[in-house]
Amino acid sequence: MSGGLIVRLASLMSRRPRAALLQTVPRLIGASTLFARLQQFAVAFYGPVVAAGFATWHRESGNYWGHNAIIRTQAFAQAAGLPTLSGAPPLGGHIQSHDFVEAAFLRRADWEVWLLPALHGSYEGCPPTLIDTAVRDRRWARNLQHLRILVADGLPWVSRLHLAMGIYAYLASVLWALSLAVGVLLSIQAAYTLPSYFSDEKTLFPIWPVIDPVKAFYLFLATIVVVMLPKILGIALALVRSTAVPPRKGWFLLGAVVDWLCSIVIAPIFMLMQTSAVIDILRGRDSGWSVQRRDGEELRFDELLRFHKWHVLIGATMAIACALASPYVLAWMAPIIVGLLAAAHISAFTSKPAPFWLRTALATPETYPVPAIVAAVDVRYPEWVRRLKRSYVTSDHCK
Prior knowledge:
mainly alpha, two-stranded parallel sheet
């Protein structure tokens, strides 16, 4: 966080005696792989629209993202203590995904939690590969513990909504997977089962199957609008505020197209990774709270194939099932099937450093120029690593 931002947050907090926590939206930095650059691009250009919407409706009942915030220690010590949940992990025991709960408890004690998206100068890294994101998602799936907090006494309805949204973020993948499975099964049933034109009741006319392609098309358009609207608004806002896009707008629009295409093929992989994480949690499998990697390294393809084998197998099964139903179902499901069949190759490609043209297309305002605080950290980071290693060696020697 920049010194200017910290001073600004401290000044704002001093003017609001009931403010317990203030934070802005951290920008992602330090991307070395294509996957990380895609995340940087999305946060830089779509994140401000989403954050502004959140800040508008939840006002002083904001959420907490666990870092890059200023906290009033009196309020935190007084109200944000975490309970130990009954039962064994992962649904019981210590609360691992703590930040949402702390924000809810602060609000329960009538302290204010604010999100201030208009302030800049907050930065963080991001997972460099799909596999690293899967590790993080497996950890964040512990949000299901918040089901136990939803019924706590005295929580404001907005805080309960924040907790519910965090839970639903993972359950949504399960629901999507189930809806796809049911849809394919119904398509196969329709293809191989003769329709019944007459019911048990006596009637002079047959009961024809009702298919309304116009309504189906409208539903498709509505779905596309809901999914793409944050991206469309983010792109429009960046173009209007020309200082928020890289020097050449043509490259920026190319980056938006690349991000859109990559998000289509990566989304089904995320769906299965998150579904697997939720199933593990519900089965009581506790994987702890693993550390995130921020620095990427190219993974061997055999490792990627082992990790994504179930994604590829499910994609092949889905392709066969859709082909048995009809060519139209296969074409409709093609984006999902292609993403799953090519999961290992997509993971391998996105874990490599982005080529020059993609680095240019996916550039963010933090790329040109690099913020001063980030440049200062980059200069000092190697020395910090050497000091940390020396302290570990000294500690081990003393033992």
